[in-house]
C-alpha cells in the first residue's frame, strides 16, 4: 500500500507540474488552465517525467528491472542518451513557459534582487558540491537492496 501511495503521489505531482505549465503557457498563471490543451500538456509532462525516470533506472539498475527499463526507454545507443535528452527537455520547459509571460511580470523588484543575489552566491556552491558528491558516492549500479 505504501508503494502504491508513493506511485500515486508521484503521478499527481507530475500531472500538477504539467497543469501549471499549461497555465503559464496560456499567459494566465493565476488562473487554472482548462480545456483539452491543458489536459494534453499535463499528460505530456507526466510522460516526460516517466521517461526521465526510466532513463535513470536504465542507468542505475541491474537484472530484470534494468531490462524492463531498457525495453520501455528504447535500446538505441547508450542509456545516458535518453536520460540526457529528457533532462534537457525538462530544463527547457520552464524557460519556454517563462518566455510566454510578459517581461514586466517576470522582472523582480531591485530590492528583492539585492537580497537574493548575495544569498544565491552563498548557497549555490555548497548545493552544487553536495549534489556532485551524491552523484559520485552513488555512481555504481544498484545490485541489491541497500537501506543505509
List keywords for this structure.
single chain; about 150 residues; mainly alpha; 6 helices; about 0% strand
Structural overview:
The chain has helices spanning 2-25, 36-60, 63-73, 79-99, 103-106, 110-137. It has 6 helices and no strands. It has a domain at 2-102. The protein is mainly alpha-helical and 148 residues long. The chain is globular, with a radius of gyration of 19 Å. Helix 1 (2-25) crosses helix 2 (36-60) and helix 2 packs across helix 3 (63-73).
* Integer average pLDDT: 84
Main beta-sheet strand count, sense and barrel state? none
The count of DSSP E runs of length 2 or more, i.e. the number of strands, is 0
What proportion of the residues form beta strands (DSSP E)? under 5%
Computed Rg: 19 Å
The shape, in one word, is: globular
End-to-end distance, in Å? Answer: 23 Å
* Fraction of residues in helix: over 70%
Helix tally?
Answer: 6
Low-confidence stretches: none
Computed structural class: mainly alpha
- Give me the strand/helix succession: HHHHHH
Short description:
With 148 residues, the chain is mostly helical. It is built from 6 helices and no strands. It is globular.
Amino acid at each position: 500500500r505504501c508503494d502504491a501511495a508513493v506511485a500515486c503521489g508521484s503521478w499527481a505531482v507530475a500531472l500538477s507540474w504539467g497543469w501549471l505549465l499549461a497555465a503559464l503557457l496560456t499567459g494566465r498563471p493565476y488562473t487554472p488552465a482548462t480545456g483539452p490543451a491543458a489536459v494534453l500538456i499535463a499528460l505530456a509532462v507526466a510522460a516526460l517525467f516517466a521517461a526521465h525516470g526510466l532513463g535513470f533506472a536504465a542507468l542505475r539498475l541491474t537484472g530484470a528491472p534494468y531490462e524492463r527499463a531498457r525495453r520501455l526507454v528504447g535500446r538505441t545507443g547508450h542509456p545516458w542518451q535518453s536520460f540526457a535528452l529528457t533532462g534537457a527537455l525538462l530544463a527547457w520547459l520552464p524557460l519556454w513557459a517563462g518566455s510566454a509571460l510578459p517581461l514586466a511580470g517576470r522582472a523582480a523588484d531591485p530590492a528583492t534582487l539585492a537580497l537574493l543575489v548575495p544569498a544565491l552566491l552563498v548557497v549555490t556552491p555548497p548545493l552544487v558540491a553536495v549534489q556532485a558528491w551524491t552523484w559520485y558516492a552513488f555512481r555504481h549500479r544498484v545490485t541489491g537492496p541497500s537501506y543505509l
